[in-house]
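Quiz preparation item.
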């Protein structure tokens, strides 16, 4: 490389540095908005706890006034029944007391109703706040991806000058790790963590309502049971998405078969398996990649293909393996679809699958037509030794 080419690379890098600085600044501003949204979300949660406390007090107050109201009305009935033996003053006193308690009861019931309405409003606001946070985080992610691609371009230029390969791999690995941590944190925070917090509040509410009205308490208990079931499912889904335990317990082939059966449960699609014996050389990270890729392809087949037959085949060589998944569905325009999903930023599963294969130094071939259906053929290295040797 001559001096002029080096100068050109430096000039291009300077331009990229300015662009990346601008993108990073925009990302920081969006992160500030996310931070503000999270603070608002926490404030709403605090408000919800305070309102729930007021509701609990209101329920106790209404219960107490209802008891007093019954006593006062019984007393009034007794006094009225024996009006000849009671003076007009005693009758009026009993009537005024019953009326006063009745008014207090109506006011307390209205306060309880208003507090419940306020609680519902805050719960809706919390849901909207969570949605806004998720949307903002998605924008941050997209901006981060754009910045990483630009950084990749710079590192590629540095690589041509004899630098940057290790740096480029390091940046991409760190970014992937951070994105995964962020996703897991968001899944737990917005899923089971929120539900468990609501379950604790509802459990306390159930106890108070049951003391007042057993049928209403049982109804609240039913919603509590459903919320617990959903929270448990979300926790299991998060664990499964991190790493299916069946990979360790049953192996790759059985895990693929179990997932396929789950995806197509209730359908009449016929599945044909040709899964070769998994060699000891196949590293765990590649097994997980094979499972995730097959999972994404099968989900897309179920959603879009209208297929009657699906086949899954694995083959192993000394350095590489291949998984092939095909169907006899309606097919799609591969080139047009890839251009569209990249442009519209949709179907992150398909893009993520392709990116996963590229990161592992593999190859992916997608063939599809209306007459023959679709075939996904993915070649992957058996382990990281093969990746590093490339």
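Solution:
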């Amino acid at each position: 490389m001559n001096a002029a080419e080096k100068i050109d690379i430096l000039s291009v890098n300077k331009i990229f540095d300015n662009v990346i600085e601008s993108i990073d600044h925009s990302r920081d501003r969006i992160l500030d908005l996310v931070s503000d949204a999270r603070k608002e979300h926490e404030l709403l949660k605090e408000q919800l706890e305070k309102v729930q406390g007021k509701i609990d007090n209101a329920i106790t107050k209404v219960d107490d006034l209802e008891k007093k109201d019954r006593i006062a009305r019984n007393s009034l009935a007794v006094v009225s029944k024996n009006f000849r033996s009671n003076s007009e003053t005693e009758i009026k006193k009993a009537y005024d007391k019953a009326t006063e308690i009745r008014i207090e009861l109506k006011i307390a019931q209205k306060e309880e109703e208003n507090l419940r309405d306020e609680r519902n409003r805050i719960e809706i606001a919390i849901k909207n706040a969570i949605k806004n946070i998720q949307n903002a985080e998605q924008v941050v992610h997209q901006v981060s991806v754009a910045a990483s691609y630009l950084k990749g371009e710079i590192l590629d230029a540095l690589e041509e000058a004899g630098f940057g390969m290790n740096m480029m791999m390091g940046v991409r690995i760190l970014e992937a790790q951070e994105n995964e941590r962020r996703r897991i944190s968001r899944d737990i925070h917005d899923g089971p963590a929120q539900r468990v917090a609501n379950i604790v509040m509802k459990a306390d509410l159930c106890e108070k309502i049951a003391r007042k009205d057993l049928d209403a308490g049982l109804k609240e208990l039913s919603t509590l049971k459903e919320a617990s079931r959903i929270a448990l499912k979300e926790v299991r889904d998060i664990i499964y998405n991190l790493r299916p335990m069946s990979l360790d317990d049953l192996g790759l082939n059985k895990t693929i078969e179990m997932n396929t059966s789950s995806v197509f449960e209730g359908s009449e699609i016929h599945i044909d398996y040709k899964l070769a014996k998994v060699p000891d050389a196949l590293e765990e990270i590649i097994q997980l990649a094979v499972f995730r890729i097959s999972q994404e392809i099968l989900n897309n087949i179920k959603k879009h293909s209208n297929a009657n037959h699906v086949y899954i085949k694995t083959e192993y060589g000394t350095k590489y393996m291949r998984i092939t998944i095909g169907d006899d569905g309606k097919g799609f325009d591969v080139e047009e679809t890839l251009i569209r999903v990249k442009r519209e930023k949709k179907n992150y599963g398909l893009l993520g699958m392709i990116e996963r294969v590229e990161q592992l130094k593999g190859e992916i071939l997608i063939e599809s037509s209306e007459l023959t259906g679709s075939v996904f053929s993915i070649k992957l290295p058996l382990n990281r030794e093969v990746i590093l040797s490339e």
